[in-house]
Amino acid sequence: MKFIIVPNAPVMAARHFCIAKTLIEQGHEVHYMMWALPYNIKPSEMLKHLFTSLRSKTYVHEGITVHTARRLPYFWPFINGWIFKSQIRRLFKRLNADIIFTESFTNETEVPKDLPFIYDLADDYAAPADVYGSPIYKLAFKLLGIRNVMKRQCRNAIAVTAVSDILYNFAKQYNSNVHMLRNGLDKGIIEMTLRDLPTRPTNKHSMVYVTRFGQWSRAIETLEATVKLKKEFPDLELHLVGEGTESAKMLAFIKEHNAEGYIHYHGFIYDRKKMYELMGQSQIGLNISDKNKWRDAAHPIKVIEYSAFGIKVVSTNLAEVEALALPNIFTFSDEPKGTSLIDAMRRALQSENEPSSFEAVSKEVLKVYDWHRIVYALETVINDALKRRSSSD
Across the strands, what pairs with 313? Predict the structure, then answer.
């Protein structure tokens, strides 16, 4: 089968890229429809984008053929959308493709309804502007028509896949053919890491927090709790993995509190095996960003990754986390009578359970969230949807 994938952002990463690589492993032909965006609002980047957006090119990346669409530079809602639709129609016809798998959510990269496509709701794309956006950010989301595009793509797709109950229920309002399709794990790398780890964690009070440290990550609150808990658990250690707007504040806090000996900031770790080794050598994984409609709609992949190593997890009481109902998870809440973050961390630190206690959790998670299993489910959705479409024509 020939696939064209339209990602939610022009980056070869995350869910769509994992699906693409698995499709190739299972014998399919995969093409990407990409486009240029002016990242890092710097004069040099803006100038570079002025020229790169007008050029189209085709190249191969990890067995995937990538086609870069022409577009007017910067943002031209509707006009760029019309240009994009014209180009993807031509590409679909030239390749004699079977299906488009799209996460597109703006009117500049919307897939036209006359082409057969699966709409993948991997996130509530409109929610960041509602929850965190500045007035300019909110205006940009409105001009790009994000919420309306999500509705139209759901309505026009031959099937919709969703990562969470919230997104599933959203899609059901506009399409009767909706399927749950969770995120998966880098099962091969995780299993290799588990085999290669010399020992499981010896420090029972070691924690790891892997995230993008943005304004929702509770970064400073986490550090404050760690400093307080250090008095109760003298061997306490915290490893921080990731980058973001809070990074400078975090480094300043660590220095100010002379915490360099037990709070270790690693920045972003590009080597996933190295990152997984850090998870596997910790006793507790943190997934503690704010609870809101954006986070509640997401699939809690970090909780799944931590659980794959059989370690305890301290998490915000997100809807999808609570739905997992795993015995290794300690949740907290911002509600007046809820368990606080520091109390949830304390309970996890006091728990005598070792990773061996959650071996069954690890095996089940690695089985259920295997990308190959998820892509087989996607193939079934596509084949059934194409048959329906063919019989109705």
Answer: 285, 329
CA distance 125 to 106: 9
Which conformational region is residue 199 in: left (phi greater than 0), alpha (psi within -120 to 50 degrees), or beta?
beta
Identify which of 102, 120, 104, 127 has the alpha carbon closest to the alpha carbon of residue 296: 127
Q: Could you read off the pLDDT of 82-102 as tens digits, one per residue?
A: 999 999 999 999 999 999 999
Look at 73-77, 78-82, 110-114 and tell me which has the smallest mean pLDDT: 73-77
Three-state DSSP class for 83? Answer: helix
Please choose, from the candidates 50, 102, 58, the residue with its C-alpha nearest in 3D space to the C-alpha of residue 76. Answer: 50
Distance, CA of 322 to CA of 262 (rounded, Å) = 30
- pLDDT of 190-243, one tens digit each? 999 999 886 666 678 999 999 999 988 999 999 999 999 999 999 999 999 999
CA-based radius of gyration for the chain: 22
* 356 within 8 A of 194, measured Cβ to Cβ: no
Q: What pLDDT, in 10s, does the model give residues 240-296?
A: 999 999 999 999 999 999 999 999 999 999 999 999 999 999 999 999 999 999 999
Chain centroid to Cα 88, Å, comes to 25
CB 314 within 8 A of CB 332: yes
Contact by Cβ (8 Å): 119, 147: no
Judging by DSSP bridges, how do beta strands 58-61 and 64-68 pair with one another?
antiparallel
User: For residues 183 and 299, is the Cβ–Cβ distance under 8 A?
Assistant: yes
The least confident of 25-39, 175-189, 317-331, 370-384 is 25-39
Residue 42 has pLDDT above 80, yes or no: no
Answer with the residue of higher pLDDT: 389 or 174.
174
End-to-end CA distance of the chain: give it in Å, rounded.
20
* Strand positions, DSSP E, the chain: 2-6, 29-34, 58-61, 64-68, 99-102, 117-121, 159-162, 178-180, 206-210, 237-241, 263-267, 284-287, 312-316, 329-332
Q: Are 214 and 294 in contact (CB under 8 A)?
A: no
Closest CA to 156 of 171, 167, 135: 171
Q: Parallel, antiparallel, or unpaired for β 64-68 and 29-34?
A: parallel
